[in-house]
Amino acid sequence: MSDEQWRQFFLLCNRILGKGHAVAEFSESWCAWTTFERLSRDAGYWTAGLPGTEDVLSTCIGDSGVWGQPFPFQEIAHLIIPKQFYWERIEPGSFANGSKPQDLTRLAQALEGARLPHRVTESVLEVKLY
Question: How many domains does the chain have?
Answer without folding.
Answer: 1
